[in-house]
Amino acid sequence: MLSKDTLFALSLFPYLGFLWFLTRSKQTPRLALIGFYALLVFVGVTIPAGIYAKIHYGEVLANVDCLHGSAESLLTLSNILVVLGFRQAIVDRKRAS
């Protein structure tokens, strides 16, 4: 059985492939694409924050509210960008037709 950390690390490869195809297709709204890339920032911040929480507080990241909340705010921002990007594409498409 794979550990959750191993599974998390392995999940990055399909996601990077997803980003590659989205970028290459040139059909994804720019703001949504930025949001999908911002998810990588969330991952990049979450990993060191988790290590810091373990070393400094002796806890997992989810149990250290100030670190966990800060990291999760990046996830929220990423989601907002994706939604706004696709919303704008829908509005633009309706206007064009």
Shape: elongated
Give unreliable regions as ranges. none
Number of strands: 0
- Which percent band covers the strand fraction? under 5%
Chain-averaged pLDDT: 94
Helix fraction bin: over 70%
Largest sheet: none
Spatial gap, N to C terminus? 52 Å
Class of secondary structure makeup: mainly alpha
**Count of folded domains:** 1
Number of contiguous helices: 3
Rg from Cα: 17 Å
The sequence of SSEs as H and E is HHH
Keywords:
mainly alpha, elongated
Structural account:
The protein is mainly α. The protein has one domain (28-96). The protein has three helices and no strands. It has helices at 4-25, 30-57, 65-96. Helix 2 (30-57) packs antiparallel against helix 3. It is elongated, with a radius of gyration of 17 Å. The model has no long low-confidence stretch (mean pLDDT 94). It comes from Hydrococcus rivularis NIES-593. The chain crosses the membrane at residues 6-22, 34-53, 73-91. Pfam families: DUF3593 (PF12159). This is DUF3593 domain-containing protein. Keywords: Membrane, Transmembrane, Transmembrane helix.
Summarize the structure.
The chain is mainly alpha-helical. It has helices spanning 4-25, 30-57, 65-96.
What is the topological layout?
Layout lengths: L3 H22 L4 H28 L7 H32 L1
